[in-house]
Amino acid sequence: MRIIETRGVTKWYSSGATRTFVLRDIDLDVEEGEFLTVMGPSGAGKSTLLHILGMLDSPSEGRYRFGGRDVHGLTERELTGIHKNDIGFVFQSYHLIDELTVFENLETPLLYKKVKASERKARVCDMLDRFRIVGKKGLFPNQLSGGQQQRVAVARAVIAEPRLILADEPTGNLSSKEGAEIMETFRELNAAGTTIVQVTHSEKNAACGKRTIRLLDGWLEK
Amino acid sequence: MLPSLAGNYVKTAWRKAKREKAYAAINLVGLAVGLACAILTALYVRHELGFDRYHVRNDRIYRLATGVRGGAYEAIAKVPGPWGLAALKEIPGIERAARFVLMNEILVGRGEVRSYESGGMYADPSVFDVFSFPLLRGDPATALARPGTVVLTESFARKFFGAADPVGGTLTFDTKNDYLVTGIIRDVPAQSHFSFDFLVSIETYANPMREDWRWNQFYTYFLLEDGAAPGAVLEKIPGLLGRHMPPAEASDYTPRLQRLTDIHLRSHLFREIQPNSDIANVYIFSAIALLVLAIAGINFMNLTTARALARAKEVGVRKAVGASRRQLARQFLGESVFMSASAYAASLGLAALLLPVFRPLAGRSLVLFGASQIGFLAAMAGLALAVGLAAGTYPAFVLSAFQPSDALRGQARGIRGDMLRKGLVVFQFAASAFLLVATGIVRDQLHYVQGKRLGFDIEHLIVVPLREDGMRSGYEAVKRELRGVPGVISVSASGNLPGGSDWGVPYEAEGFSPERLPPMRQLLVDQDFVATYKLELAAGRGFALDHPTDATAAVMINEEAARQLGWADPLGRTMAVPVLKRGPSPVIGVIRDFHFRSLREKIGPIMVLVATPEMMTVVSLRIRATEVPATLAGLERKWRELDPAHPFAYSFLDERFARLYERERRTGTLLLSVAGLAVLVACLGLFGLAAYAAGKRTKEIGIRKSVGASARSIVVLLSKDFTRLIAIGYLAALPIVVWLMGRWLESFAYRTAIGIGPFVAAGLAVLAAGWLSVGFQSVRAARANPTDALRYE
Predict the structure, then answer these.
(1) What is the span of the domain harbouring residue A163?
(2) pTM beyond 0.80
(3) Among residues B547, B523, B518, which one has the least CA distance to residue B535?
(4) CATH code of residue A137
């Protein structure tokens, strides 16, 4: 089953009379269970593409179908539902909420999903175990190393059991060892059936994926 | 909302506040100060609006007042004694009538305890039927029925009887009359347009004029029957007067009925029992409080919005994990409400602290906490909540509207509120400048009023009441004795005094029909008055002992009286005052205009006559400026010889005049304190905004410094914007303050011109305060190491 399908997706920003194009005419299909890597130099539009795929941003032109549904026609409620249930995000700079502990950060998506307290606790503990951060659960993000923060961020992306994980240079700020751990996790998730789209500069990371596409100046290289 | 999600929000908000203490404190303190200001004002306003409502039947109680043709006033608050009784008998719809007559200050004694008391009133027995003054002891039906009976308030009773039982005991009035105490009532509540310490039965009031149909001396209140229309009662009063008086006299009166609960704020008649307040005051107070509250609310809104950038990332993350826009808006609104609730708690403490300072400014005994205040405190909590919601809505809207992709990149293109924010800062400083300038103008006017030459010499004049009949009839001898005391320059006895106690009774003037006469006031004096007060003569001569007819058939007038009567040469024209049994008497002198009343009023026409000995109530003494204490001591010794029964009591005339401007002085002080608070709150906001602005320009500052900008130029750069906003706010306030304060000044017939002083002072004050708040932040930003600034990128 096809989870992502874009046709002619284009993104520009206008400043005054001139338009700056970030993405041009992107046709992209991703099947359920794929592990796709998006590569390209800085400014090629990788992050923008990922944000559009994650519905954090909207295309200026073109059509985007997610799981067979046209994203353009979604209501805010449906969009929120997709964020809650279907997509998990991992960012280069982790983006944990600074005021919340590791435990509370992990819990937040479940709160928005209105998961019951007992189940919430079980699932958070499960994640803490799985990502080997049990000892850190009471700490705040600024008390963790980059690799630890990213493990929390991945755990947070995974906790709601999404169909799709979108990762924006997840290892960009990490040491190679920490990076390798994160990539290993992604491989396991993918093996278990989760679709993954990652943006990266690293050929090594790309090798973890099953397919690689390249962006240059907003164009998708054929 | 799920409690757990709420918990998540609370944790975030609380930890954020802990991390950014300064910002949280500014927000909290600013809002708390604004709320405290509003609470105190609301307390005052509620107090003012609640006057006389404790009387159970207040909706049916009316006071009878009347306009009098030829009287120098619009209407007088008291009417002749027989009116009320006749109305009760002859006009349907009146259930009860109760009348009061004010007692002069009188010496009250019981054994060793003696003191001058001015809180007495003669009252009809029906006072307890009309008003709600429940008797703690005694029988309301009989307490004031007989002559020589008196009902005391609790604290008055305690003063004279201590722990002993007052009922059945006696008090000695004026050293010779023993009155029987027949009842005790609770002290009169503060929210009353009249108050008293004791009531003497009206039968005791032995004035021969009490049955006179033309002598306005009785404050007369009606309790109307249930359902009776006051208009219908009023309509019948002229007919009533016509039945009892000659028609020509009856038509001199235009009676009116005043609702009891309207008197305190809306009645400004001649001879009110006690000076009333003014509804305008209530409005002004409310407006000022709202202004300060608005300033505080704006701060809150401004700072929260400005801080939105710092929360952009959180918004982005929450959106990415599935928060809806509505949930986010609710979260931020919740934070505002939480903040305003905390501010409310703080403001209660603040208000309680400020209350002792505020009470004398408001001139009222206000209570903040107490069982009766629960509704009020709840209403204030509601106000706090409303402010929190109002001020929190905009930031919540802005924050929740962020595009998540922008927010995560640390850009917040949603924030377009820069213009709005600047506009609000301008408003805050306009309001602050307004209050400061207004304060300055009030002070200038007070200064002017007190420095103005009054047309007579007010300094070193002391005033001593004559309390003994013998002292009055023998006043010439008393004057002689007092003049012999070293330090006394001259002495004058009189029936009333400049400063507001002049009379305004009907009079006649040669060649005028009654309806064409201008209103005229009267001073009743002796032959030494003009010299003692150092009045200046424009024509003719003053009263003199060697002209025996001066005491019975001569008047003096002021220049204004001559002008209004149209007399180019008033000397020899005749005037009469029937009420004083003074037949046509020639004008023997014209006094240069002098201020015999407050400078709020234009000098009006006044006539001066020599009073009969029994009308003399007071002596005025001009004493030498040096050795005042010695002179006062000598006077006291002499007084003890003359009137051993009455202790010597005196006041200085200039102090009595100063009291005329008590309300203005209080307004001035109050304005100053509120203006101070407003500036403080506005500066707190500016402080926060400057921090934000400096933070936003961290990179710019780093770059400028790396290419060689000096710290000073950075400070100037950062302060420039805010200085402009302050200046715009200040300029915007000018036309409004000039217009409004111009109108306020117009309430004075004699007023200072609006000078440059208050404007300069207020301008410097807001600028200095603004620079201090901004400067601190700017210097900190400018001093920072440029590499630190740039590393943030």
Answers:
(1) 32-59+74-212
(2) no
(3) B523
(4) 3.40.50.300
